[in-house]
Amino acid sequence: MEIYVVKPGDNLFLIARKYGLTEDEIISANKLDNPDNLVIGQSIVIPRRERTYRVNPGDTLWSISRRFRVPVESILELNGLSSSDYIYPGQVIRIPVKERPYGSIEVNAFIQPSTKEREEQVLQGTIEYLTYISPFSYHVNKDGSLTPIRDETIISIARQNGVAPMLSVSNIAGANFSTEVIQQVLSSETIQNNLINNILFTLREKNYYGVIVDFERIPPNQREAYNNFLRKLKEKIWPQYKIAVALAPKTYDITEGSWHGAHDYKTIGDIADFVIIMTYEWGWSGGPPMAVAPVNQVEEVIKYATSVISPKKIMMGMPFYGYDWTLPYMPGGEFAEAIGNREAVDRARKYGAEIKYDTKSQSPYYNYVDENGRLHVVWFEDSRSIAEKLKLVYRYGLRGVSYWALGKKFPENWEVLDRLFKIVRK
Question: Per the UniProt entry, what are the Gene Ontology biological process annotations, in alphabetical order (predicted)?
């Protein structure tokens, strides 16, 4: 797989000709909706099935095969050669591009329920790239009951397409994760038992495959109480139903603080079938402008996580969004607007901005001035940043990735994912 970055003077015809492709092939791979007006700095996935290589002195078919990690037989077949044929310096030969070179992974995506029509629209062209789909979320109440959501359409589409629906439960009350709710739940055996029974009932009633527990802002002094709750939940539902747990990102065993302290990586990693590490929100709507999921920071979290949890149990969080900040940033001031990949590129086009790329965080960004003369900075994800994150999954041998959250357009993501990995289905 190759990714091309649009340069001044480029157009789709020139890019297609450079790679021996048709314009339609590039449009189809990237789902381009404005192919005649590309943005400088925009990244484009090149859907090539082969590449060319000019033979150097000393090259042999065997050495070329090792270099590109493809069988000699495949090179011979593509070029109409036999094993007795010689190759010579300067000769141009065609090299097949290895499909899905990184092997197999599992893919989860969260989705926020809306209308039946909207859910069908979001999942069209997306569901085939998923192992799990997780409607977010059933809210836990202080008495251990669950506030249900409209999840029937999502579950039905998932089951029809061989995707495993996961019941997502959280301690959200109103718009935020509630310390009060989770504190009350973890302080009472009766409430915990009620919650566990309600989870089991919902798993059976709605035909879910398993549950994802996303409890946040837990008092750190309830760390062991949370571990014990997860043990009891597993004892009740496993192995008929799988259990996964969402974890805040950290680079060592932080035991203080409501966001990180109660998330005991090692113990929870032992209990759960898999964990989802929420490796995003370094750049967040109320904070200073920066990449949402800088690869250098994400890798530090993965290094720690894999030291205490089996890599085959780790799903790495992937953001499906970016942010548009109004400058200058003022703490406590205007919150940044969440923005999708396609929206970000369209906005750069609208304001004549050039997309730049930060190599440290491996993330695209740009500045623009709006109609009111206000300066903005946009940090988002593109095919390059997604490819770099997926390299981490491969290098650390992780179970897979988990996207937060479907709903914004980002077709290049699925193209990159599909070219690098085979998606496991349940």
Answer: carbohydrate metabolic process
Residue 300 makes CB contacts below 8 A (sequence gap 6+) with 251
Map out the domains of the chain as residue ranges: 2-96, 104-423
- Give the pTM: 0.93
Kind plus residue range of the DSSP H or E element containing 317? strand 314-319
Give me the catalytic one of 119, 216, 299, 381: 216
What pLDDT, in 10s, does the model give residues 27-48? Answer: 999 999 999 999 999 999 999 8
Number of H helices, E strands in the chain: 14, 22
Label residue 99 exposed, middle or buried (CB < 10 Å: 0-12, 13-18, 19+).
exposed
Mention the CATH class of domain 2-96.
alpha beta
Instruction: Report angle CA 319, 302, 239 to the nearest 5 degrees.
Output: 85
Instruction: For residues 172 and 166, give the distance between their C-alpha atoms in angstroms, rounded to a whole number.
Output: 18
Q: What is the topology classification, in CATH, of domain 104-423?
A: TIM Barrel (3.20.20)
> Tell me: the pLDDT tens digits for 83-114?
888 899 999 999 988 789 899 999 999 999 99
The answer to whether 214 and 110 are in contact (CB under 8 A) is: no
Q: Before 137, cis peptide (omega within 30)?
A: yes
- Tell me if residue 216 is catalytic: yes
